[in-house]
Amino acid sequence: MSDVDDIKAQILQTRQELAETTAALSAKTDVKARVSSSAKQHQQQLTLAGGAGALVVLLLLVRRWRKRRS
Fold first, then answer.
1. How far apart are CA 16 and CA 12, in angstroms?
2. What average pLDDT does range 41-65 have in this prediction?
3. Which of 3, 18, 48, 61 is the most exposed place for a label (fewest CB within 10 A)?
4. Is 62 exposed, middle or buried (0-12, 13-18, 19+ CB in 10 A)?
5. Could you tell me the pTM of the whole model?
6. d(CA 28, CA 30)
């Protein structure tokens, strides 16, 4: 490779690294997307907890019903 080809390759690599860095910084500064993502995670956790709670209540009611039948 010639010096010109080496320089072109370095420029191309630098451009790719700069694009990746810019994308990463853009993602970090996108507050709306980060809040939305966090809200979705919390919503999923609450849904799971609510489902688990409903299951526990259902099991307790079945247990109580069976005791009354006996």
1. 6
2. 90
3. 3
4. exposed
5. 0.44
6. 6
